[in-house]
Amino acid sequence: MENLKKRFKENGHKMTTQRRAILDAIVENRNEHLTPEEIYDIVKIKYPEIGIATVYRTLQLLEKLNIICRLNFDDGYNRYELNYDSEGEQHHHLICLDCGRVMEVKLDHLKSLERQIEEENDFKVVDHNVKFFGYCANCQK
Ligand SMILES: [Zn+2]
Ligand SMILES: [Zn+2]
């Protein structure tokens, strides 16, 4: 959190109570991949005066500062999670087509795949985004 505060300051922004509350909601529910509406519902409990517009604006700011990233699981919602840069390790998502559950996986061999792509195509890879669609253990039954 100290690091994040610093990043706010360096970019000329203040870490206000409401911004902090929004960030806390994302950090505390980091396995949930929350939508702006879900974040709003969480923050509202403690800060009933907050408006959904503030949530949207803050999410945009946090995204711009690379603190969070926006996810698209093709379910019609924008979802947010902490940027893997701030956590140290990237993960990918398994999305259940039946119940919508999202699980996280680490894929170490993607690094070597990146290197292979670079060598074979003379292409500098800076990022990748992998989603797997299928059925979770419950929905396979
Ligand atoms: Zn499922
Ligand atoms: Zn995730």
Can you give keywords for this protein?
single chain; 141 residues; alpha+beta; Arc Repressor Mutant, subunit A; Dna Ligase, domain 1; 2 domains; three-stranded mixed sheet; 46% helix; 16% strand; binds zinc ion
Description:
The protein has about 140 residues and is an alpha+beta fold. It contains 7 helices and 5 strands; from the N terminus they run ααααββαββαβα. It has 2 domains: about 1-90, Winged helix-like DNA-binding domain superfamily/Winged helix DNA-binding domain (Arc Repressor Mutant, subunit A); about 90-140, 2-Layer Sandwich (Dna Ligase, domain 1), CATH 3.30.1490.190. The chain has helices at about 1-10, 15-30, 35-45, 50-65, 85, 110-120, 135-140, and strands at about 70, 80, 90-95, 100-105, 130-135. The strands form 2 sheets. The protein has a 3-stranded mixed beta sheet with strand order 4-3-5, with no helix packed on it. A two-stranded antiparallel sheet has the order 1-2. The chain is flat, with a radius of gyration of 17 Å. The mean pLDDT is about 90. The chain binds zinc ion (ZN) (2 copies).
Write the layout of secondary structure elements.
Layout: H1 2-10, H2 17-28, H3 36-46, H4 52-64, E1 68-72, E2 78-82, H5 84-87, E3 92-96, E4 102-105, H6 110-121, E5 131-134, H7 137-140
Parallel strand pairs: 3-5
Antiparallel strand pairs: 1-2, 3-4
Helix pairs in contact: 2-3, 2-4, 3-4
Bound molecules: zinc ion (2 copies).
The site of one zinc ion has 5 residues, from loops.
